Amino acid sequence: MSEMNIILLGAPGAGKGTQAAVLCKEFGVPHISTGDMFRQAVQAQTPLGLSAKSFMDSGALVPDHVTIGIVADRLAADDAARGFLLDGFPRTLTQAEALDDVLCRRKKELTAVLNIDVPEDELIRRLTGRQVCKVCGATYHRVFHPSPQGERCGVCGGALYQRVDDSEATARSRLLVYSRQTTPLIAHYTQRGLLKNIDGLLPIDVVTEKLRELLAGMNSRGA
Ligand code: ADP
Ligand code: AMP
């Protein structure tokens, strides 16, 4: 199997984490979510977490130099040597350029940038109804993807919680940040011939199937 170095692009609430959970398992690559890494650091009250918390709570981006540092370190880990799926990174052109440098130094290339496209009103419904398992991080939605165990996780039985930044006001700020700072990446990766668009309004399992087909197609070309 050829190496798969994938970026999952899309606004907050587009379904990146939901899809990454399935695809990473299937394709055997690590799921590298900067949001998850920051939330773990906040929970553990590490210096990284303490510096990231105020940015996250207000819906702003954590400064580039901090974020680039943690991703560069993560990509140096053994499990990322044969492919990875980045979720929530890069989010600025500076981060995209830094990623290029890191990959170039490690003699790696991006395979594809998969852009999950969802309109804003739907994103707000998804973010404000999202529930996350405290224990294993599995993601649900009160209406669109309820846990079979109600307020407990269908995978591990852990309690579900709502992220503080999923309030409607903070969700709206995050979408504004996304449109100002992250949407330029769509043109950036289109110009490089790497971008593939996926209609994220489709049901979860149909989006998974479309992503799977795209990845399988790339894999057979690169094999
Ligand atoms: P992201 O990682 O891009 O922020 P998530 O994967 O956490 O997004 O999904 C956001 C919310 O939308 C979650 O509550 C999830 O269950 C729900 N969701 C994800 N994909 C879909 C979909 N295709 N249709 C309906 N709801 C979805
Ligand atoms: P996410 O889980 O991807 O929705 O990210 C949650 C929060 O973590 C964001 O609102 C940011 O505050 C922070 N964050 C995650 N990824 C990045 C990134 N690539 N650059 C800057 N901040 C980030």
Structure characterization notes:
With 223 residues, the protein is α/β, with parallel strands linked by helices. The chain has a single domain (4-119, 179-222), classed as P-loop containing nucleotide triphosphate hydrolases (Rossmann fold, 3-Layer(aba) Sandwich). Helices cover 49% and strands 15% of the residues. The strands form two sheets. It has a five-stranded parallel sheet with strand order 2-3-1-4-8, with helices on both faces. Strand 5 and strand 6 (139-141) form a beta hairpin. Helix 1 (16-27) crosses helix 9, helix 2 (34-43) crosses helix 3 (47-58) and helix 6 (120-128) crosses helix 7 (168-182). The longest helix has 19 residues, at 204-222. The chain is globular. The mean pLDDT is 95. The chain binds adenosine-5'-diphosphate and adenosine monophosphate.
Provide the descriptors you would attach to this structure in a database record:
alpha/beta, Rossmann fold, 223 residues, globular, binds adenosine-5'-diphosphate, single chain, 15% strand, three-stranded antiparallel β-sheet, binds adenosine monophosphate, five-stranded parallel β-sheet, 9 helices
Short description:
By secondary structure, the chain is of the alpha/beta class. Helices cover 49% and strands 15% of the residues. It is built from 9 helices and 8 strands.
**CA-based shape:** globular
Query: What value does the Rg take, in angstroms?
Result: 17 Å
N- to C-terminal separation? 6 Å
Strand order in the largest sheet: 2-3-1-4-8
According to DSSP, the number of beta strands is: 8
The CATH architecture would be 3-Layer(aba) Sandwich
Which structural category do the helix and sheet elements fall into? alpha/beta
Return the average pLDDT rounded to an integer.
95
Largest sheet entry: 5 strands, parallel
User: Can you tell me the residue ranges where pLDDT is under 50 for at least 5 consecutive residues?
Assistant: none
